[in-house]
């Protein structure tokens, strides 16, 4: 029997998701999506009647989420840094930790007081890092590299829809950048960093729906950092910044990898809002 009001539909869906061991709050995200309202109007609509069309679509999505489909794949988007980005099975769903990486990089850019900085985002996926930097710091020039053609197409659509000026390049990690002569003021990346042995233990919402290519960093999870670090001396400007998202147990290892290639750089492990080490910043000062 169809519930009469929004709050009744939310209560029923939240209880069902909790019984299915899913996040009950997902019911609110899905209802907001199907009502096509912002959060303020969503909260004001709780005592509104539920139409047949909304209930049918909402209940279908709730059932699919209970079965393991991520909310973002049901809605087709995720919010990142206040903007809506298209996501699908070809790209990693953006995480809040990556917003913190972007925020730290933007802070560094603003402290330079220099226009036309050259920025490179390695392994761009849906493009959230490159596009956000391009929109928040419009005087910079941004390139974004991605090995997956389908992920690259998603990033290009996001850039077009959001009006961001980003040059997208298909290729593996930093390899395409080596073909030019540009040195970069900022190189930023959220690379695959999950060790192979941890893949099967991941939450099925992640393991079965995010692309493995965007998650697993070969045997120990550090392969991409090693491959990128060897090119930093050639690609990173004097006084430039390399910034990486990491797994919360990889700070010392990634710092050691970077220090091997740039022994005089200032290298710092930074913590996220949950007090976990989730970023490594490497500021070059050797030349």
Number of strands: 9
CATH fold-level assignment of the largest domain: Rossmann fold
The DSSP helix count reads 12
Whole-number mean pLDDT: 91
Helix content: 40-55%
Notes on the structure:
With about 290 residues, the chain is of the alpha/beta class. The protein folds into two domains: about 5-65; about 90-285, Vaccinia Virus protein VP39 (Rossmann fold, 3-Layer(aba) Sandwich). Helices cover about 40% and strands about 20% of the residues. It has helices at about 5-20, 25-35, 40-45, 50-65, 70-75, 95-110, 130-135, 150-160, 205, 225-230, 230-235, 250-260; strands at about 75-80, 85, 120, 140-145, 165-170, 185-190, 235-245, 265-270, 275-285. The strands form two sheets. It has a seven-stranded mixed sheet, with helices on both faces. It has a two-stranded antiparallel sheet with strand order 1-2. Helix 1 runs antiparallel to helix 2 (about 25-35), helix 2 runs antiparallel to helix 4 (about 50-65) and helix 6 runs parallel beside helix 7. The N and C termini lie far apart (about 70 Å). About 35% of the residues are buried. The mean pLDDT is about 90. Belongs to the protein N5-glutamine methyltransferase family. PrmC subfamily. It comes from Salibacterium halotolerans. It is an enzyme of class 2 (transferase).
């Amino acid at each position: 029997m169809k519930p009469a009001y929004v709050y009744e539909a939310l209560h029923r869906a939240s209880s069902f998701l909790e019984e299915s061991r899913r996040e009950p709050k997902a019911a609110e995200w899905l209802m907001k999506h199907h009502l096509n309202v912002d959060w303020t109007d969503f909260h004001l609509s709780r005592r509104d009647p539920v139409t047949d069309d909304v209930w049918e679509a909402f209940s279908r999505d709730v059932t699919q989420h209970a079965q393991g489909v991520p909310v973002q794949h049901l809605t087709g988007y995720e919010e990142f840094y206040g903007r809506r980005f298209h996501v699908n099975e070809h790209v990693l769903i953006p995480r809040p930790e990556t917003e913190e990486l972007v925020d730290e990089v933007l802070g560094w850019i603003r402290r330079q007081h220099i226009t036309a900085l050259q920025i490179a985002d390695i392994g761009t996926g849906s493009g959230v890092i490159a596009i956000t930097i391009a929109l928040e710091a419009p005087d910079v020039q941004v390139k974004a590299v991605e090995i997956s053609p389908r992920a690259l197409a998603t990033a290009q659509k996001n850039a077009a829809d959001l009006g961001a000026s980003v040059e997208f390049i298909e290729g593996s990690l930093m390899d395409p950048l080596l073909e030019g002569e540009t040195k970069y003021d900022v190189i930023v990346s959220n690379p695959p960093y999950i060790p192979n042995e941890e893949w099967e233990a991941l939450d099925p919402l992640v393991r079965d729906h995010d692309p493995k290519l965007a998650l697993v960093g070969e045997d120990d999870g550090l392969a991409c950092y090693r491959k990128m670090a060897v090119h930093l001396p050639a690609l990173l400007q004097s006084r430039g910044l390399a910034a990486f998202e990491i797994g919360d147990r990889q700070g010392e290892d990634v710092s050691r990898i970077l220090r091997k290639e740039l022994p005089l750089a200032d290298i710092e492990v930074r913590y996220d809002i949950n007090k976990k080490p989730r970023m490594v910043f490497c500021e070059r000062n050797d030349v």
